[in-house]
Amino acid sequence: MALSGLAIFKLLPKTNCGDCGVPTCMAFAMKLAQQKAELSECPHAADEAKAALGAASEPPIRLVKIGVGANALEIGNETVMFRHEKTFVHQTGITIQLRSSEDARQLNQKIAEIESYIVERVGEELSADLFFITHDSSKTTDFTQLVQQVKSNSTKGVILDCPDEAALKAALELVKDDRPAIFLREAVSETQIEMAKSVNASLILSGISFDNLVHQAEKAKAGGVNDLILNMPGEDIGTLVQNNTILRRSALKKNIKPVGYPLCSVLKADDKFDLVAKASTALCKYDAIVVLPDYDRALLYTLFTLRQNIYTDPQKPIQVEPKLYAIGEPTPTSPVFVTTNFSLTYFIVSGEIENSGISAYLMVCDVEGQSVLTAWAAGKFVGETIAKFAKQINLEQQVQTRKIIIPGLVSQISGDLEENLPGWEVIVGCQEASDIPSFVKNVVLA
Length: 446
Ligand code: SF4
Known about the structure:
CATH class of the largest domain: Alpha Beta
Bound molecules: iron/sulfur cluster
CATH topology of the largest domain: TIM Barrel
Strand order of the largest sheet: 10-9-8-7-6-3-12-11
Largest sheet: 8 strands, parallel
Helix content: 25-40%
Radius of gyration: 27 Å
Number of domains: 3
Strand content: 15-25%
Number of strands: 17
CATH superfamily of the largest domain: Dihydropteroate synthase-like
């Protein structure tokens, strides 16, 4: 049973040291009671407190790991229904299905393409996370060969989807040190529980109803498998959202432990539009693993972008280092643009300066990662602060030009900046970054 904030407080050190990120033990106890923090965030909690808090200090959705090394995927540990309540913690694992019935040479090529498809966006490298290997041919060796093929050519984790117990056993032997997951289409059996335990594999349980999943999860846990993932399939998007919402709410709001595990969906679709709609919905509405039926770069790019947006902590914008950046090979007389250190803004503006074909400087001011308008509204991106930053980085010693280009969205600060930066001419740039190439052509180079 969940403990009250006061009951939890009695078990904490009561030193109010603040090392957990909140100023007092009472405030931390309240966060624990609301499952918005974990006991491990208090480095001073005594063993007795850990034991006494027991399940109350466990995250409502278990952390599960698939794979090993740098490419291992961690899922779960989520504490909120909506991202704006706090943040989502572990991003959805984008997974691609391979089938043993496919031609071996085509599979080789597909694996190589998936491995090499890495998108760089806003300073992060984005790629697929796992392979979902399905046995749908008549020969056991087709499956084991495919598992071996993946193992030899990739360090990503694998999920094995194999109705043939002998083939599954042989494949598990190949990946026994790689922390795989086993996907079950039917209700879990004692044999499958033993197989999972023998190689420290996670089990993905599929159930057509909530009660059925609860029953299977209790059985697997009693059998000694703690790393579970749940799949309650929905044929259409509405059912998928409904099923996943019921499971997530039950884990977070009702503390129903047998459904306190990450979720997974294996997607099928009539066409590409249906697939992108289902995959995007599954990614936003609680699936920790989304299995795509095939490799499609356009779909992957869409999902990578969406995932990056959803799983960015809204309280901690991605930032770049505030400093003077050289775009291309600028000389001391090259133009100076100015913007904020919100990562997305930096990458878009620097990309458009590159697209314009000129070399330039980009002065990126420290506004704690806010976008141009937000920072201006907060008084952090105004004439005085920009001038102060220019002096701090010795801009006048680094360049000879005395012209500085500000974003068109904050044209109102131009006079203020000129006053604070004597000897400089402030040029108001374009409002949209996409207009930078034509601005350069018509204004800077004119
Ligand atoms: S770190 Fe622990 S002892 Fe310190 S304030 Fe937080 S709960 Fe209290």
